[in-house]
Design goal:
The complex is a heterodimer. Chain A is globular. In chain A, about 30% of the residues are buried. By secondary structure, chain A is of the alpha+beta class. By secondary structure, chain B is mainly beta. Chain B has a single domain, classed as Immunoglobulins (Immunoglobulin-like, Sandwich). Chain B is built from no helices and 9 strands. Chain B is elongated and about 55 Å long. Classes of the chains: A alpha+beta, B mainly beta. Chains A and B meet through helix 1, strand 4, strand 6 and strand 7 of A and strand 5, strand 6 and strand 7 of B. Strand 7 of chain A pairs antiparallel with strand 7 of chain B.
């Protein structure tokens, strides 16, 4: 029922979007690459498996996850991932207890430094996990963020 | 020119630091209490950054990214005057793009 509704919505909006943007923009090469399954996974393990087709992740002290200890407003929580691991291919940020835990996953050109910052909505107090892919291996660091007012309203 | 994308890109000691903000509501799927209907999520799925036409970073996003998404990253090999390109696309098929000069 739920997923049927979503399919209907998707069909409608794709048609609408195509009509609006036709001729204005060339199609995005990246259009088909959004990892839908990973973003819809409801557990951290599922997210990692779906994104990287692997489940072995090593804790690393070469990843710094910079975020507030307490977020008074869960709708805007700044997160910075800064790593000294070599040849970083990808950095992902996962909010363990959000209904859809995967927040962002970025693929990096070799010219990029191992650095990625963004702002998250957190539904409640929880661990935020940074997963870094370096030379084909997965590493992680996590930090608990206490949320005073949850960010699921919008 | 895009009205949805703001970028500051500055080079210092061969490393360029990029800070970008995109105007977007980034709403999650929710139930409208008044009508009882499901209001679908509306969020940016993908942002692509490029340097002089070469792809730098592809950020795939979910519903957990805050309203008016902010992204920052750093890269080497940039010079003042180079072009930084940004393209975003959301789950409703809307998209926008713009180019900025690295300072």
């Amino acid at each position: 029922m739920h997923s049927m509704y979503r399919r209907m919505v998707l069909k409608g909006t794709i048609a609408m979007g195509a009509a609006v943007t036709a001729g204005l923009f060339t199609p995005l090469r990246a259009l088909a690459e959004w990892p839908k399954t990973a973003f819809e996974a409801e557990a951290v393990e599922g997210v990692i498996k779906s994104l990287y087709a692997a489940s072995s992740v090593q804790d690393s002290d070469q990843i710094r996850l910079i975020a507030p200890d307490i977020a008074e407003n869960g709708t805007v929580v700044p997160i910075t991932v800064d790593t000294t691991l070599p040849e970083v291919d990808s950095i992902s940020i996962i909010a363990e207890k959000n209904p859809r835990p995967l927040a962002a996953s970025s693929r990096l050109n070799p010219k990029l430094e191992g650095y990625f910052a963004t702002r998250l909505k957190l539904s409640q107090t929880q661990n935020v996990v940074a997963v870094v892919q370096s030379r084909g291996r997965l590493y992680r660091a996590s930090k608990e963020i206490k949320v005073t007012v949850g960010g699921c309203g919008g | 020119m895009s009205t949805t994308i703001k970028v500051r890109a500055m080079v210092s000691a061969d490393i360029a630091t990029v800070k970008a903000i995109i105007n977007h509501p980034m709403t999650v799927e929710r139930l409208d209490k008044a009508t009882g209907k499901v209001v679908p999520a509306h969020f940016i799925e993908e942002v692509v950054f490029s340097h002089n036409g070469e792809e730098l970073l592809v950020a795939s996003c979910g519903q957990a990214i805050s309203k008016n998404p902010y992204f920052s990253f750093k890269f080497s090999g940039a010079r003042s005057g180079d072009t930084l390109g940004v393209i975003w696309r959301d789950n409703q098929g809307k998209q926008d793009r713009d180019e900025f000069q690295i300072r």
